[in-house]
Amino acid sequence: MTFSDWVFDLDNTLYPASSSLFPQIHARMGLFIAERFGVTVEEAHRMQRQYYTHYGTTLRGLMEVHEMAPDEFLAYVHDIDHGVLEPSPRLDAALGKIEGRKWVFTNGSARHAEKVLESLRLSHHFQGIFDIKAADYLPKPAIETYRKMLEQYAIDPHKSVMFEDLPQNLVAAAELGMTTVWVRQESHPDGPFGKDVPMGSIDHVTDDLAGWLESNLETRLE
Question: Which of 11, 65, 109, 122 sits at 20 to 30 Å (Cα–Cα) from 88?
């Protein structure tokens, strides 16, 4: 089938996980928690990982457990050097050939997404950014957030495709009828994915987003 809407995750999807961008965010999260709660950086990273695993994002854990307002956290952790990202002419060209609307769907902030897209020189391809604020701070993989994103942009899930670096974030997309593509990367900050990968919710797997788009834009996918 062909797609009317193309939904892309942002971090570690539109740029390689081997980039030095996300490690900056990880470090800033640890520093924020350490300073806020007066704990060591090691303890802060333990808390960070615990909240991420249990709540889907570190921010959601801080909001649920500590009733923390989100704006200060988001501004702090995204105060990074986006200039380390290198534009990909191949991805730019492939996105330019897509017939249909293109969206960014991220657990980060819209401002962070804007800076990433600017650094990658891809901003002109996307019609909108559905960020964590638009999601009322309920992150992927909560299915309610996917429904809200689809409703906001009037997307028919059965005529759309979603690209994600985290396989667990494709489960809800598949349940709603979206075609799913896992952008798998060996250097992912979450480490190698093992037997817990929900392969039943994944229609396609690639380690090269630009290459996948190049190969499939002229192909009717089943």
Answer: 109
- Cβ atoms of 18 and 187 within 8 Å: the answer is yes
CA–CA separation, 132 vs 109, rounded Å?
Answer: 6
Question: Rounded CA gap, 173 and 106, in Å?
Answer: 14
Q: Three-state SS across the chain?
A: CCCCEEEECCCCCCCCCCCCCHHHHHHHHHHHHHHHHCCCHHHHHHHHHHHHHHHCCHHHHHHHHHCCCHHHHHHHHCCCCHHHCCCCHHHHHHHHCCCCEEEEECCCCHHHHHHHHHHHCCHHHCCEEECCCCCCCCCCCCHHHHHHHHHHCCCCHHHEEEEECCHHHHHHHHHCCCEEEEECCCCCCCCCCCCCCCHHHCCEEECCHHHHHHHHCCCCCC
CA distance 38 to 58: 17
Whole-angstrom distance, CA of residue 217 vs CA of residue 163: 14
**Torsion sign (Cα): 136, 138, 143, 146:** positive
- Provide the pLDDT confidence category of residue 216 given band limits of 50, 70 and 90: confident
Distance CA 173, CA 179 (A): 8
pTM of the model: 0.89
User: What would the pLDDT profile of 132-181 be if each residue is shown by its tens digit?
Assistant: 999 999 999 999 999 999 999 999 999 999 999 999 999 999 999 999 99
